[in-house]
Amino acid sequence: MGYLEIFLTIIFCSVFLLLLIPKNSLSRLPRNWPFIKLMPTMYLKSHKLYDKMTQVLAENNGTILFKTSWFTNLDILRGSELRKAFDFLGEAIFIKDLDEWREDKKFTHSFYKENQFHKSTPKIIHHTLEKGPIPVLDHISQQNQALDLQSLFNRYMLDATCLMATGFDPGSLRVRFPESPLLEAMDNMAEAVFFRHILPEKVWKLQRKGKENVRSLLTLNHILADYVSKKQKPATKNQQTEDFDVLKFYLSGSDIKGSSKKHTEETFLAENKMTLLFAGRDTSAALLTWFFYLISTNPLVKTKILQEISQNFPPEKRLFSKVEELSKLIYLHCALIDSLSLFPTAPVIIRDPTEEDWLPSGHKVDHKTKLILCSYSVGRTSAIWGKNWGEFKPERWLSDKGGMKHVSSGSFLAFGSGPWACPGRELAFVRMKAVAATILHNFGVRVSEGQRMSPSLSALLAMKRGLKATVSCTWM
Ligand code: HEM
């Protein structure tokens, strides 16, 4: 991060908190508020940003109104401004205004309902687990080295998502973590999203990394265009495959029921350009990291997960990829969902009302208001989860009959809710369960001691310094 970025980030955090926090709550916050003096403190304490929001929300019945200032970007990031900040995503669905979004949802979400898509998921999981985590962790366990689990999951999710989206495995998760232009470009762009989100356009355009981001965008475009052109060449008999991928689905040019649009390679690049890669990779990879951290501090939960696996599967089983098999792992599902409730990897959801309305709290909103729904705080509210709200407790998701309890979206916002809710939720759980079960069943994972756990300052709730661990092989 450059000095300008660090400085502006500090300003953003300081102002955000100063304006966010009602006066009667100030006494609970670090003392010595004068602006300049606290900048370094705020930067150091930025990991507590979401906790402070939660505390203040709890003191104000869950809703607060705050006004932003001219040098933060929160007020102006709407409509065309939001589009500018995310221009590199093309016509991505999640930056569209309501009317456009309604029209495009039928089109962009169409493949999630395809039978072929569901059939291809276990094959993709099998392929990527066999090529990635298994040999990589085997190798690491023999070398007696530590590795960064977050980096492993980032690479895994990139390969699995890219294979689903384009039919090509970029192979970024291999022994010795090879250099991957796609991975590097994605990481640069993810960082750019955050700064473009919080800083005024003139400032983010001046960023030292501006040129680097342009290069990353060119790299991403080049790689995706290359995948499209390879797909357009007639396949030889050996290359022909029945497997589904989103690019192939688009190239087939089929009509979508209820939508005036047609699938073509241009629409794949324009509408879905990187949306799937970003939405499908980082959220799941970050959550797996929090999950491994939580089970390392709660050995009883880990023991119960391992018991559930050994009760349902033979010891010699290596890979978990079939949806029916994974559906037997209910306690594991509960542990993942409780991790997500405590550490929602998309910690805030932003909405811009199009017209005047009233919130259930009695606050009036209009087109000038920005609504920030804090899913992080929802998972840490005693009114919803009772006294032990901060504890990692998968049991709270188990029904009396041993299945999953139904929890309303008001109590769990990690995937959003209503018509905007995440279309990848089911896929996300299948993939995260497959990775977690395969690793836990075959390897002993020991999170290294003495690490400082804090979230990164980013729109995504990931671990700032990753999660170091050593592994031992338990299957030989
Ligand atoms: C732990 C994993 C995941 C989490 C926590 C997550 C969370 C979210 C959230 C909070 C939203 C915004 C909802 C809203 O605005 O109300 C969203 C949207 C979206 N997600 Fe996910 N997601 C995850 C995995 C995935 C996966 C695996 C995919 C697909 C491969 C995916 C695809 C999308 C898409 C396309 C949207 C935009 C939908 C729209 O605006 O119509 N997500 N996700």
TrEMBL record:
One of its GO terms (molecular function) is iron ion binding. The keyword S-adenosyl-L-methionine does not apply. It is found in: Membrane. Heme binds at C422. It is a single-pass membrane protein. The chain crosses the membrane at residues 6-22. GO terms for cellular component: membrane. Its cofactor is heme. InterPro entries: Cyt_P450, Cyt_P450_E_grp-I, Cyt_P450_sf. The keyword Iron applies. Keywords: Heme, Iron, Membrane, Metal-binding, Oxidoreductase, Transmembrane, Transmembrane helix. Its main location: membrane. Belongs to the cytochrome P450 family. This is Cytochrome P450 CYP4/CYP19/CYP26 subfamily.
